[in-house]
Amino acid sequence: MKLPSLMLAAAAIGLIAMQFNAWAADTGESIVGQGVPGKVTPCATCHGVRGEGGGDGVFPRVAGLPAAYIETQLKAFRDGGRSSPLMSPMAVGLSDADISAIATYLERQQPMFFAPPKAEPVQLERGQNLVTLGRWAQGIPSCTSCHGAALQGVEPAIPSLAGQSWQYLSAQLEAYRSGQRAPGPLQLMGRIARGLNSQEIQDVSVYIASLRPGARPEIPRPATPEPYRAKPQSPDTFVPPPESAIPAGPYGELIRFGQSIFEDTPKHAAHYAGNTLSCRNCHLDRGRDPKSSPMWAAYVHYPEYRKKDGLVNTLQMRIQGCFRYSQNGTVPDADSRELTALVTYFYWMASGLPVGVTPKAAGYPKLNAPQAIPSPERGARVYASSCALCHGDNGLGRGRGGEQVFPPLWGPQSFNWGAGMHQVDRAAGFIKASMPYGAGGTLTDQEAWDVAAYVNSRPRPQDPRFSESVEKTRALYHSDHEYDYYGREIDGLLLGAPGTLEQWEKSNK
Amino acid sequence: MKLPSLMLAAAAIGLIAMQFNAWAADTGESIVGQGVPGKVTPCATCHGVRGEGGGDGVFPRVAGLPAAYIETQLKAFRDGGRSSPLMSPMAVGLSDADISAIATYLERQQPMFFAPPKAEPVQLERGQNLVTLGRWAQGIPSCTSCHGAALQGVEPAIPSLAGQSWQYLSAQLEAYRSGQRAPGPLQLMGRIARGLNSQEIQDVSVYIASLRPGARPEIPRPATPEPYRAKPQSPDTFVPPPESAIPAGPYGELIRFGQSIFEDTPKHAAHYAGNTLSCRNCHLDRGRDPKSSPMWAAYVHYPEYRKKDGLVNTLQMRIQGCFRYSQNGTVPDADSRELTALVTYFYWMASGLPVGVTPKAAGYPKLNAPQAIPSPERGARVYASSCALCHGDNGLGRGRGGEQVFPPLWGPQSFNWGAGMHQVDRAAGFIKASMPYGAGGTLTDQEAWDVAAYVNSRPRPQDPRFSESVEKTRALYHSDHEYDYYGREIDGLLLGAPGTLEQWEKSNK
Q: Are the C-beta atoms of residues B188 and B137 closer than 8 Å to each other?
């Protein structure tokens, strides 16, 4: 097919899709407003004609939810995966086409907001803390980690939360907690809700419901920072200072700027980021998590000689390596404001930690050698069941509204061959300890090895040091790694698993 | 006087001086070889015709000693300041002119070396440690601090030690220790010798005597570094790792390079040093001394916001400030090998020290406010009695053989107005705690304030940030310092004390 006819065909497919969606939205509007005569009461009775919710928040807002999420829920009510005395009988009367039409219509509706609940500032701040920071040390990621920085939700499985009623939010969290609602994909919400007490569920729900249209939850910033005096701490029981202790003034501002870069590198270090990854994608809990190479441990570990470049690396040089390989980007100068901010953020996090004494938490956890040679084929199955939910069937990550929520694990927006995560052993250690979010340790060691091999056998950008041939470059920079996929993505493609180069190109044109 | 006639006059003076010296050397040779008939036995009887020493080292080598030192010693023997059953009766027969002639002749003789003493390597290493590192924590500077990196001695008071016999060296140290020999200028050698035991005196003497012509003592470098494992330490009782623990390999090499820059900045960071000062001149004991702003304390203190430039400074930026102001030089890039080496050296020194906890030793000691406003006039008298011995009557420092041993405190080779030491309070705290070498704490607080005011009222290079006028620049950068001489060296000149601009120009043409 020549290029002009290819473009014509693509245009035709686009036109058909638009027409289908328009038809589905009309049908959806009709079912929501009038129901299915003789079978289904109009959704609008409880949820409003535009899905705005009702009963002062007893009936949740469904407008603006991801269509796939609505479909999944309605089918679950219909087929028994989720039960509700009100919803289950209704859903039984809906065909797949009805459900799809409802979902298409509702997703298009502007989310409306209930009147903000009455709440004390101290309760809102407690809620904001959990929503934006989570409590990773007890396996509770922040809500924003999965629902997105604007709580906008992610197709297909993760609902938007912004503007939802606090009654509905707290009822669902309590239902997850008690097991009355099934624990959700990968059992994530069940785990998380069981880690919260009723007060915390109230705090989170009230805070989310208090957010106004367009507001994005931000880390609380007390007017008067919590008094904090760094004290010497033991490296193996180290706890970084709390966020609330970030001081006022230019020093604190620079710490916050470093933290912002860490949270959202493409946004705050736009000049240097070469892909959509952020520092926090590999170093969880904003670089604090002891199981994913915490930045406080890195702070006291550099300068150190690295074989990778044959030089003693300062911390600045080490971070430059992250920009070059993990972010496949441009290296900021050692004295750029961005690097100074990151170093200052790490320094502050390391308050009280002894210099040059390696904490147990340094680097990524090491797995024992695998019992069987890591297999991308087996890994593809682990990936499909445990990773694709967030990272996508095609490994390109997931987000919503143009915002990346879950990072791409391969493809043009992921780390390149030169990155540490492209070492299968390192990726396996990270995955075993920390993946999926809030469910670290649930894969077997062999599953972690296999899925790491799978991910690293997928196509990704070339090592910027590439010269002449894969063999020569590998000999120079990657010769001593086991289970190595350096420059071998072509082999990966032959496996026929998801994430072929074709898909990559299609998703990135 | 016009320029040509000025040059003629200078040439004439030079010629006369050369002729006088030639006459003096001839006369000196005659007295050394033949004595003064009827009064003085020939020096050569014991010390050899070229002052090479004799009696297998019992009679010291006097060849190559600084002339002024020889004069001082002979006059001391003659006038009773120093006593010896052999030397005192001889010296009585010498006129001032005889002494001057002997000194001129002997200084010109190439120092000869006795056969090296037999010694175990372990003893030599012990001696080398004391000679090159000293034991500052107990107030014992390294021998090289005052006698010069090549132990070449310094006019007028400090003899060369290289190639001296171990018998003579140990006999003199023992004599200083017992008080049999007067404790020397500022009582320095008396203090130092009392800090050594007899074994250490032997070690030092044997090591120095073992040095061959042209050899420079270097910090011992064990083939196998001492095993050292950094352990968390309390910030207020912190002890940096010993030199002998600097590891092998590229990391250790970079530490040593950083240490070399610290020891001799003009030599090892030649591209950036703008004067003859080295880091160690203000941070004693190679940056380890807790009383002079130790570098291990600085390491855990940065990044920090500084009013000086209105920025959060990384350690690299802070060191760049030293190059710009204290060294009146050029700023190395943040990722230059020199800065990386210095940071790596400081990092290694800080092993075990908690990040962000300020040790008591951080910065320079603070003095209580002075009882009287610090007076350059009084300070000039303190300077003459306690500082000029090493730093020179003209403040331009002292050295020998083209090598700076004691740093210039003002003049074109000293720090500029923008340096921290140009703050009278900081200079006073440093001087009180650490000056003279090995005799810290011997000045009163008021003397330290006064001499700091004197030193800082002397002419020195301009702040590189200078713009428009002293008043305007001072308002921008130096407004909140008490007893301030910022840009006021002209006032200083009016005091008529040593170190006028004329002398500066004369000494530096």
A: no
Tens digit of each residue's pLDDT (9 = 90 or more) over A458-503: 888 889 998 888 888 888 888 777 788 887 764 444 333 344 445 5
Cα three-residue angle B430-B436-B437, rounded to 5 degrees:
95
Q: Please state, in angstroms and as integers, the Cα–Cα distance from residue B337 to each residue in A325, A484, B283, B374, following that order.
A: 23, 33, 21, 42
Residues 6+ away with beta carbon under 8 Å from B120: none
A47: CB partners within 8 A, 6+ apart: A32, A53, A54, A59, A60, A61, A62
User: Which residue's structure tokens are 């001889």?
Assistant: B90
d(CA B304, CA A344): 8
Output the CA–CA distances (angstroms, integers) from residue B345 to B136, B263, B286, B351, B355, in the order listed. 19, 12, 10, 10, 16
Q: What is the pLDDT of residues A20-31, one digit of tens each?
A: 778 888 899 999
A3-34 vs A96-108: helix axis angle to the nearest 10?
90
* Contacts A314 to B, Cβ<8 Å: 316, 335, 340, 343-344
Rounded CA gap, A365 and B319, in Å?
A: 36
| B423/chain A closest Cα distance in angstroms | 25
Q: Give the residue among A172, A218, A215 at the shortest CA–CA distance from A193.
A: A172
Short-list B68, B65, B25, B74, CA closest to B155:
B68
pTM: 0.90
Q: What is the DSSP letter of B361?
A: T
Judged by a CB distance cut-off of 8 A, whether residue A228 touches chain B is: no
Which pLDDT band, with edges at 50, 70 and 90, does B499 fall under? very low
Tell me the CA distances in angstroms from B457 to B395, B422, B494, one per residue in order: 12, 9, 10
* List of long-range contacts for A256-261, beta carbons under 8 Å, 24+ apart: A256/A221, A257/A337, A257/A341, A257/A345, A258/A341, A258/A342, A258/A343, A258/A344, A258/A345, A258/A346, A259/A219, A259/A286, A259/A345, A261/A338, A261/A341, A261/A342
Residue A263 CA to residue A283 CA, distance in Å, equals 10
Q: Which of residues 270-299 of B touch A (CB under 8 A)?
A: 299
The sign of the dihedral angle between the CA atoms of B220, B221, B224, B225 is positive
Is the minimum CB–CB distance between B334 and chain A shorter than 8 Å? Answer: yes
Eight-state DSSP code of residue B388 = H
Q: What is the pLDDT of residues B91-115, one digit of tens each?
A: 999 999 999 999 999 999 988 888 8
Residue spans of beta strands (DSSP E) within B36-179: none
Residue A254 contacts B where some CB pair is shorter than 8 Å:
yes
Question: What integer best gives the mean pLDDT of chain A?
Answer: 90
Token pair 């250490």 is found at B200
Enter the tokens of residue B28: 């000196």
Q: What's the gap in Å between the CA of B245 and the closest CA on chain A?
A: 14
Q: How many degrees, rounded to 5, is the angle at CA B210 between CA B204 and CA B211?
A: 100
CA distances from A467 to A311, A325, B112, B173 (A): 20, 16, 60, 65
Pairwise CA distance, residues B189 & A345, whole Å: 49
Cβ separation A347–B354 shorter than 8 A: no
- The ipTM is 0.88
Give the CA diameter of chain B.
Answer: 77
Among A219, A264, A265, smallest CA distance to A245 is for: A219
DSSP state of A502: H
Residues in CB range of A199: below 8 A, 6 or more apart: none
Number of H helices, E strands in chain A: 24, 4
Residue A219 contacts B, CB cutoff 8 Å: no
Interface with chain B: mutation pick from A314, A319, A348, highest number of B CBs within 10 Å: A314
CB contact under 8 A, A355 and B235: no
Rounded to whole angstroms, the Cα distance separating A404 from B352 reads: 41
Quote the pLDDT of residue A507: 46
Q: Is B12 on the interface with A (CB under 8 A)?
A: no
